[in-house]
Amino acid sequence: MEEKVIAKGTLKDSKLFCMLLPILGLLITICYDFQASYSSYRGEYNFGYGFGFGNGANYALYPMIIVLAVIGFIFYKRWSKVQITVTNKRVYGCDATAKRVDLPLDSITAVGTSLFSGLAVTTASGAIKFVFLKNRDELHEEISKLLIGRQEKSSVIKQEIPQSAADELEKYKKLLDSGTITQAEFDAKKKQLLGL
């Protein structure tokens, strides 16, 4: 059977989320500076939890803005590379850590949703996450259909096996009735076919 693409992931813009990290750091610093300035205004001696001198100059907090900006930039660079393609045979692309993945459908055990509009595809070795997907629900539905189809196909095969064993047993019963095989041979074959 030829491999055909069923669905491809489209990304949401993750810039806003990644820009929120340094803005959060700036807000924390402003709030902390305000608290320290207010304490200084009231004449209280404030060590500022080790960061300032009680006069609003919390210089050690300002690098937090830079650190959060760098983290936001790294997240944006990684998350902007996320790709996912679902075919009738596999799921492949780049996950949230920018690692290339190729998952045969037989190795996928479950699929679920995760934070940041993410999709988690679970295998025996763990969950692989794809984030900031506009069509996360569509991809989830398509992979679920493929997994259910695989499960139904395997249950049909399992149901056919006992039927073929019953047919085989019926043949040996006819051979027993015709006298071609002995009762002991029939009993041995019956045990073998039924797995006793």
Spatial sequence of strands, sheet with the most strands: 1-2-3-4
Distance between the termini: 38 Å
Structural class: alpha+beta
- Major sheet summary line: 4 strands, antiparallel
Count the DSSP helices: 4
Mean pLDDT: 77
Word description of this protein:
The protein is elongated, with a radius of gyration of 32 Å. It has helices at 15-41, 62-79, 136-178, 183-194, and strands at 5-8, 83-87, 90-94, 100-104, 108-114, 118-123, 126-130. It is built from 4 helices and 7 strands. With 196 residues, the chain is an alpha+beta fold.
Question: Can you summarize this structure?
Answer:
This protein is an alpha+beta fold.
Considering the chains and any ligands shown, give keywords for the structure.
196 residues; 19% strand; four-stranded antiparallel β-sheet; three-stranded antiparallel β-sheet; alpha+beta
Give the SSE layout:
Elements: E1 5-8, H1 15-41, H2 62-79, E2 83-87, E3 90-94, E4 100-104, E5 108-114, E6 118-123, E7 126-130, H3 136-178, H4 183-194
Antiparallel strand pairs: 1-2, 2-3, 3-4, 5-6, 6-7
Helix pairs in contact: 1-2, 3-4
